[in-house]
Write a structure and sequence with these properties.
The protein is mainly alpha-helical and about 375 residues long. The chain has one domain: Growth Hormone, Chain: A, CATH 1.20.1250. The chain is built from 14 helices and no strands. Helix 6 runs antiparallel to helix 7. It starts with a helix and ends in an 11-residue tail after the last helix. Keywords: Membrane, Transmembrane, Transmembrane helix. It holds the Pfam family MFS_4.
């Protein structure tokens, strides 16, 4: 059987993460300043919409495994894709923050379902020698979606915010059409592999990483567009750099985890994340270009590293460990998302205050990877 056939589920998973995280969630970043400029929402309300999406992601990550067991992986992932399309279509109506809030929450649910199921399903379908590559392919969908959104949003905004939402819905619908017949057709049931090891430092590092990434994942384009006065188009271009960094970090993440192991790879990726937050605090806009590349490299790559690390230490039970990690990541992002939205409003929309908070959590995440830990024996299956 060819490697390409063995990785079919990984390519379908990449389409799912592209739609869920890359487009339905993160295309909101370049839309943020445009919605504020068009008078749909205020800056603080846009931050709250981003936080609501993170809260929905938490619910989806928690409910995704249950949906997979009851409906089967293919049907559950199809339901997640349907949520994304519906949410984007409904966001095209200019009803203000109260109207947009539940639909951004729904988009988060769909993205969480897809993220919790896509990686483990792809790893189950791939042979042991290709599991790191499968992780990288699945997570690369996030970066590809970020890039697609960064390119599409400025062009669509020529026709207004409603056209942008509708165009994104069309992109997600196309990805759904591609991926649905290629999603794994397992019947659901109990997850294989028994009880995974606890791995507290893996979970803590990934959780803190999630909190530290929120400033880039919500405020980056707005920081460029309104904070530095560069405009919406330049803000979208800087978000595109985030996606390019993410694609590089993801593909290298799977490769690195296969060769130097998950713990060492996590230290490297968290170190890049700390550097990205530090660069964002430099009061010189070219530093934001490097910050965007480094943050994308860390933000998407850390998921590929953690997914591979989970397989390394938990073997067939990696899916359970990955869901725990995804839930921790989502909890941290939801809590910090609302916290940063409050800080953003209370400080007169200070981007520096938000990115300084992200740096604090990122340093703690790096410290967690440096703490002594016991990874356990490698268990392949």
């Amino acid at each position: 059987m060819s490697a390409r056939h063995n990785l079919t589920a990984a390519f379908a998973g990449a389409a799912a993460t592209c739609a869920g995280n890359g487009i339905a969630r993160f295309a909101f970043v370049p839309l943020f300043p445009a919605l504020v400029s068009a008078g749909w929402v205020s800056g603080a309300e846009a931050g709250a919409l981003g936080a609501a999406n993170l809260a929905g992601y938490l619910l989806g990550a928690l409910g995704g495994p249950m949906a997979g067991r009851r409906l089967g992986t293919r049907n559950a992932m199809g339901a997640g894709m349907a949520m994304l399309v519906a949410s984007l279509l409904l966001c095209a109506l200019p009803g203000g923050a109260l109207w947009l809030l539940p639909w951004r929450f729904l988009a988060g649910i769909g993205a969480g379902v897809l993220m919790s199921l896509a990686g483990p399903a792809a790893q189950r379908a791939a042979p042991p020698s290709l599991r790191g590559r499968a992780s990288g392919i699945v997570m690369s969908g996030v970066a590809i979606g970020i890039g697609a959104g960064a390119l599409a949003v400025p062009a669509l905004l020529v026709l207004g915010p409603s056209a942008a939402w509708l165009g994104l819905a069309a992109l997600v619908a196309g990805l759904w059409f591609f991926a649905q017949p290629r999603f794994p057709a397992d019947p659901g049931g109990r997850s294989p592999g028994g009880r995974p090891p606890l791995m507290p430092f893996l979970l803590l590092a990934y959780t803190l990483s999630g909190a530290g990434l929120v400033p880039h994942m919500i405020y980056l384009a707005d920081y460029a567009a309104r904070g530095f006065g560069l405009g919406v188009t330049v803000g979208s271009g800087i978000w595109l750099l985030f996606g390019i960094g993410g694609l590089t970090g993801t593909m290298l993440g799977g490769w690195a985890a296969d060769r130097i192991g998950g713990p060492v790879s996590a230290r490297l990726w968290l170190g890049v994340q700390v550097a990205a937050l530090g660069l964002a605090l430099v009061p010189w806009w070219p530093a934001l270009l490097l910050s965007a590349l480094a943050a994308g490299f860390a933000a998407v790559g850390i998921s590929a590293v953690t997914l591979a690390w989970a397989r390394e230490v938990a073997g067939p039970a990696a899916g359970i460990l990955w869901v725990r990690a995804t839930v921790g990541f989502a909890v941290a992002q939801a809590a910090s998302g609302f916290g940063f939205a409050a800080v953003f409003g209370a400080t007169g929309e200070s981007h520096h205050a938000v990115f300084l908070g992200g740096l604090f959590f990122s340093v703690l995440g790096l410290a967690a990877t440096l703490a002594p830990h016991h990874a356990g024996a490698r268990r392949e299956a």
